[in-house]
Amino acid sequence: xxxxxxxxxxxxxxxxxxxxxxxxxxxxxxxxxxxxxxxxxxxxxxxxxxxxxxxxxxxxxxxxxxxxxxxxxxxxxxxxxxxxxxxxxxxxxxxxxxxxxxxxxxxxxxxxxxxxxxxxxxxxxxxxxxxxxxxxxxxxxxxxxxxxxxxxxxxxxxxxxxxxxxxxxxxxxxxxxxxxxxxxxxxxxxxxxxxxxxxxxxxxxxxxxxxxxxxxxxxxxxxxxxxxxxxxxxxxxxxxxx
Length: 242
Ligand code: F6R
Known about the structure:
The chain is α/β, with parallel strands linked by helices.
């Protein structure tokens, strides 16, 4: 795993955006795996700037998001559909039909999850997957003890993650209990992974992911086995590295 430590989240986000932009320029029909949450926001902002000021063209790009809350409609303000359109898709020229976010309202979740996996394969596989990391080491919403071979499926959030994500909902008890998430195995099949983490709150999870033993108790640690993984962090998130 390549580890890039930057003085702050801003500079780390610029590096991540440049990775995405380079791929999109080299391969206009690239397939991107995308994350939500506070961590990639500055990266999205920079990509929007590159689109508006430099003509970075997303018209042939296909996207697959990692996860969505079960039970939320796409227009619920805290849904990951809404997050992605508000913060990224509405500001670039990606085509709606090339955007994929798990359907939290699917009436048959296992069948939906199978189709999501099939759609990724049909698109040619994910070229670049952007990840954040939970304070417990989760990637996507693969919480500790998730199978390291798992595929897209329904998962239950831990109390810690519901607490961490409370802000968008007003309080932790409003956060749904279940999510649909790409599996760890789905993430491991992507050609390049960029994992981003900012702030001391993520330091322990990053230390486990980068230097700890590979364990399902820190799902991000499996990225040590990924052939092309880039970990871009700020100094806060690096404080527990040896
Ligand atoms: C979001 C996702 C999660 C987040 C993680 C960190 O799509 O898959 O793994 O990346 O929970 O969230 P933030 O960035 O809000 O700290």
